[in-house]
Amino acid sequence: MSVMTSSSDFPDQDDSPEEFLRYLLRRTGGLVTAEVVATARERLGIPRSTLFRLAARFRRTQRASSLRPMKRGTHEGAVRLDPRTERVIAEQVDSFWLKKEKPNVAALMRRIREVCLTEGLSPPHRSTVQRRVSELIPISAARKRGEREIEAASTPSPGRFSVAKPNALWQIDHTIVDVIVVDEQFRRPIGRPVLTIAIDVCTRMVAGFHLSLEAPSSTSVGLCLLHAVYDKTAWLDEREIDIPWPVAGLPEVLHCDNGADFRSRALSDACREYGMKLQFRPPATPRFGGHIERLIGTMMGAVHLLPGTTFSNVKIRGGYDSEGRANLTLRELEKWIALEITGKYHQRIHSSLLRPPLSVWRERQGEVDFNLPSDRMAFWTSFLPGDRRRLLKDGIHLEKIRYWSDALSRDVGRGTELEIKYDPRDLSRIFVRQSDGRFIEARYRNLAFPPVSWWEWKHAKKMLRDQGRLELQEGVIFAAIAQQRQIEDIAASSSARARRSIKRRPIEPGHEEHSPVTAIDMAKPIHSDDDTEFWDQ
């Protein structure tokens, strides 16, 4: 007895072939009856033998997709290559191509061809080798080849980094700014400055920044934090910027990468002293510093519109004359960046917050602890490199320079070592810690000597030693620096390196109106007046 009554019981003509077959086989319990064979041949033109194979697959899966005709030719994933050739390809990809030297596919092809000919095998086609390479796991291959950018792009990062309140965590980092600045005297290019910048992760507010021609160091980190921690009203007034920048206070956690400047003892001691936890992200994982990396990318994107930009790479720059178009000094660039931060970045709707960072900060600033360090000098000097030196009758000796302050007189003859701090940008003074924990300033014992930087001092000593002068005195070294500066001054009109050296010199007393960018807010602190007298001293 047939289970099929009439063609009117069949599915519509618009149904796909596999749906029609599924209907037939479901009606017969998966059996290929004579009626099923006749109907399938009449309506779909499927031979009897093919129908039996399709029915067998359908009984295993019960899915309509199993009734689709198989494609002719080699199935996807099937390998027709000689197994010995496959072995050669696999061995050479692993031992030769997956190396830090990053050989290209052409070199890999030559190596595979050589091995195949040696073993009497037919070399594979280039497309076969490229297909085997493309089948590798991208992140694993990029890690073995040392391709950081590809590894970062291939690494999944589904998580989201969130912080409970403002000033709970700041991220900080350095970058070389993609623009060439000019000197103030000749208005000629002197190079690209370094930007140190910090962001509050909770509100996405820029906490502070520091701009200089010096290489990144714990000193530049300290100057950035000095700008970030204290009230910025006076700093903004000095630059004639009438836009609020209310971020202030100490962060609970300072999040940074593993650079030597963040691993310095001076920075770790300073963070411990002021209750800031120094937290490092895993090595070679920029995604763990995504907020500061994105901020830097935003700032550099804005900088690319300035005259003298170097763009992000040589290919994009093309034939643009960056040095010839440069016209901003370091101080002018600093003001421009401050306006970009306060007037644009803080005011725009952030894609993650869906609100302007400034609005989020104002809404939540009641959660911020504004108990700032009362002694700004102590706070800043805590980030400077330091040492311990014995106080002698003629003062404290550091790098063959003698320093003195009348405040040290009472400690002469005691034979104790004193902790000192020094600013590598200006060796004309050091900071000596007293027994009460406060720092006093000691200057050259010979006040006729000009201010010099650590870089100038080391360079002059090396030059003299290269000349065979092993016994060096401070007067000889200062004389050598004076000669070097004279040479630089003569060469400054034509040499960017000489102009950069001049710009990095410390400022002599009496010329503060042309002072370098320091990012230090000299305004009075919010909670204490005690350190005002100290600054006056």
Automatic annotation (TrEMBL):
InterPro entries tied to this protein: Integrase_cat-core, RNaseH-like_sf, RNaseH_sf, Transposase-like_Mu_C, Transposase_Mu_C
Annotated stretches, region: Disordered: 498-537
Sequence ranges assigned to domain Integrase catalytic in this UniProt record: 162-365
Pfam family, one: Mu-transpos_C
Gene Ontology terms: biological process: DNA integration
UniProt cross-references to PROSITE patterns, sorted A to Z: INTEGRASE
MF (Gene Ontology): nucleic acid binding
Biased composition (Basic and acidic residues): 505-515
Name of the protein in question: Transposase
Taxonomic path: Bacteria, Pseudomonadati, Pseudomonadota, Alphaproteobacteria, Hyphomicrobiales
